[in-house]
Design brief:
20% of the residues lie in helices and 29% in strands. It is of the alpha/beta class. The chain is globular and about 50 Å long. The protein starts with a strand and ends with a strand.
Amino acid sequence: MLKITYYGHAFFQIEGPQGTILLDPYITGNPAVSSKPEDFRPNAILVTHGHGDHLGDAVPISIRSGAPVVAPYELATFCQRQGASVHPMHIGGRHEFPFGHVKLTIAHHGSAVVDAKNILYTGSPCGFLYETDGKTIYHAGDTGLFYDMKLIGESGIDVAMIPVGDNFTMGVDDALKAVDFLRPKIVIPMHFDTFDLIKTDLQPFISGIKKKRGVKARLMGINDHFTL
C-alpha cells in the first residue's frame, strides 16, 4: 500500500513498504506549504529540473538526511557540488533502487538554477516513472503536451501527476489531451494557483475527466493524502 501526500505546486511525498521518496520538494518560499525541510527524512529525492520551484529544498534535505538526489546528470552534478548525495541519471534510463524502479522520461521545458545575477543551465528537464509495490506513478514535471505521452501510457499508469496551470506548462485543454494519451487510472492536477500567473479554474478539467471512461480526477488540497 502506498500513501501519496501533496504539499502544493509539484511537491509530493510517496511512502510505501520499500521506502519514502520526495518529488520536487519546493518548501522554502512556497506560500502554500507550512512544513519545514527538516520535517522530511526520505530515502530519495527525485527532482525534475533546476528551477527553484522544483529543485526547492532538495539539497539541504539531502545533506541532512543522506538521501540521494535522483536527477538528470547535469542537475545531479550541480547538487553534488552543493554537498548533496546524488544518483545521476538521464532520459530513457531506468535504475532499480531499494525503494523501487525509477525511469526518466522526456519533458518539454527548461532547466536552470537562476539567481539575481546568473543563470546556470542544468541540462534537460525530465519526468519520472516510479514503480514500487506493484504500482506505477508518473510525475510529468513541468512540460508542454507531447505525443510520446502515448508511449509513456503504455507502461500502465496507476497515478499521473500532470501540470495544468498554463503559461509555463500545459493548460487545462492540453492536460485533458495528455490524459487521453496517458490513460491513467487516477490523474492529479498540479502546478496551478501557486502564483498569479498560474491561477487556474479547474472545473473544466474536472468536468472533462468525468467524460473519460476509466479515469478519475483527484483534486488534492495542501497536506491532503490518500492510499493506493
